[in-house]
Write a structure and sequence with these properties.
This protein has 242 residues and is an alpha+beta fold. Helices cover 35% and strands 14% of the residues. The chain has one domain. The chain is built from six helices and seven strands; from the N terminus they run ααβαβαβββαββα.
């Protein structure tokens, strides 16, 4: 007479299974967070590219670039004349006018894009002889950590503050800075709180870094800009120039 054997897990077998499951879950946590960061970054880079094309498209229709948004909550561009006078450059540095351009208000990190434009390009019809006063410079750092010009003479710069530190959130609040070493990010933020024209024109763009020991510190800002040659060529193609 055969004795039937009951199927089941022993305590040891169950413990082994639980350990394996825990190890598998632990190995998934880091890739999942990395995937989220990659998705946020990709969405933001796409929005920056869309913003650049929207700015150029606006110029092709209107003959000029748009002025910044009226405020963090009002995405329509500022009124005519806002970017004139002694404070022209300061007033032409603010938030991307998302409503005027028909763009999303927030980037992949849930923050609003910033925008700085040369006043004469935002207040007057662009011509071949338009003054370069107020044009922007985007800098990076060389292998030794020294700041060098990446591109200069650009009429407009669009900036995302990235996932960490600074920026205006969907709640309407401004995110503070939790680091004491991210000098380049702090410098970018300061451009949008400038009080002198010379303080509004130079932006930093580097590879993403979490290394707090490098010159300029950790960095996750993302930037795009409107090259003057591209803008002029598009205006010519649209019949706005000559």
């Amino acid at each position: 007479m055969r004795l039937s054997r009951q199927a089941g897990f022993t305590l040891v077998e169950m413990a082994v299974v639980l350990v394996v499951v825990a190890l598998l879950l632990g190995s998934l946590l880091v890739p999942l967070s990395t995937q989220v960061e990659q998705r946020q970054g990709a969405e933001t880079e796409l929005l920056l590219e869309d913003a650049r094309e929207a700015l150029i498209g606006f110029a092709m229709v209107n003959g000029r670039l748009p002025r910044p948004a009226q405020s963090s909550s009002n995405g329509a561009e500022k009124a005519t004349g806002s970017c004139t006078g002694p404070s022209a450059t300061v007033n032409c540095t603010g938030f991307l006018p998302w409503a005027t351009l028909g763009l999303p208000r927030f980037d992949g990190y849930g923050k609003q894009l910033r925008y700085s434009v040369a006043p004469l390009y935002a207040e007057s019809a662009i011509t071949f002889s338009s003054s370069t006063a107020g044009h922007k410079t985007v800098k990076t750092r060389d292998g030794a950590g020294n700041p060098v010009n990446l591109v200069s003479g650009v009429p407009a710069v669009i900036l995302s503050h990235g996932g960490n530190n600074f920026g205006f959130l969907e709640s309407g609040s401004e995110l503070g800075n939790s680091s004491a070493t991210n000098a380049d990010e702090a410098a970018n933020d300061a451009k949008f709180k400038c009080t002198l024209a010379a303080d509004c024109d130079n932006f930093m763009h580097r590879m993403r870094s979490t290394n707090t020991g490098v010159t300029g510190g950790e960095f996750d800002d993302l930037a795009a800009w409107v090259p003057n040659t591209l803008l002029i060529n598009r205006l010519v193609a649209a019949g706005r120039l000559p």
